[in-house]
Amino acid sequence: MKCSVLISVPSKSCRRESLRWPQTPSATVIAELTLLEDDAHALLPQSQPGLEKILQHHADLTLAAAKPVLRWYDAFRVALDIVFEQNAISLEAVAERLAMSPRTLQRRLAEHETNWRTEVERVRQERALALLSDPELPMRSIARRLGYSDERALRRAVRRWHGAPPFAVRDGLVAG
Question: How far apart are CA 151 and CA 149, in angstroms?
């Protein structure tokens, strides 16, 4: 059964404005509410002056303090960063943090047109730049923190990413 609600507000010229739902010509009106324009804009008898400002301020503070809802990919990146910090880089560790199987994680990454290897490389590259900016940090330590077996693997990766060895990239970061 199709139904419709008609709300009409007579304007000062006594012309009726109406809203019908659903908006079909054959809709049957089952309820009607008519208000005078002055009544529609009048304060409620129990209203408290100034309450609107207080509530608006509270709503603004609540929204400012609210944590944003992470999209799936953002949650994945947070989990990947955590396993990097714990030096336990594995598909299984990230999948466990996201409460899914490793295969489901791979499928979700494919839905985002990426894969595990690409994401790990992206995080390694970001972290490598951050670690290389510290001139006191030895290359062996940087390689270990990024999950590489030795300095040679780090050198190959940095050369692949930036076309220069780690020391040259470091000199550019420190000088810039």
Answer: 7
Tell me which DSSP letter residue 33 carries. E
Total count of residues recorded for the chain? 176
Q: For strand 16-19 and strand 4-10, is the pairing parallel, antiparallel, or unpaired? A: antiparallel
| Cβ atoms within 10 Å of 59's Cβ, excluding its own | 10
Which tens digits make up the pLDDT trace of 111-148?
A: 999 999 999 999 999 999 999 999 899 999 999 988 88
Q: How crowded is residue 124: how many other Cβ atoms within 10 Å of its Cβ?
A: 21
Mutual angle of helices 166-175 and 151-162, in 10-degree steps: 60
Residues 6 or more apart whose CB falls under 8 angstroms from that of 67 comprise none
Element (H, E) at 4: strand 4-10
